[in-house]
Amino acid sequence: MKILISEAQFKSIFLGERVMVYYNLHKLTFSIVLSGKVIMYADSVKLKNCEFRVREGGRERVRDEKRKNVHAFVIGDLLDYCEFPCENLKPPKKGIVVSYNPYLNDSFVVKDTNESVYNAEKVQMVNLKNKIYIIE
Prior knowledge:
The structure is a single chain. The chain has one domain (7-134). It has two helices and nine strands. It has helices at residues 7-14, 56-65, and strands at 18-24, 29-34, 37-54, 72-83, 96-99, 108-110, 116-117, 119-126, 132-134. A hairpin with a 2-residue loop joins β2 (29-34) and β3.
């Protein structure tokens, strides 16, 4: 027996869950991870109660091998998302751009000031040029 649920019902299953999100260099979009498994790919992800985490071992391996691996995440409670491929992507009207470069930084940083960032109340990740924004 096949059970059909609407897109809204499917979406509501994951809202509120604590997830890890990283930029997937192979798919060129974000991977959303729940309980250690990728549950979906999304071009836009909105999180609250966020933590920016960089695994030191992974960062060191990138620097040693000159080859990227998954070791940097934004962790937070899932507020909203638009699955890949998502049309009409737009960055937030205001926000602070956050970036991470394993060759230059030990943590996520504010792009304009290079100040380290570890937490934020709300973050929106958009699959455009500047991908991560602190929106609150």
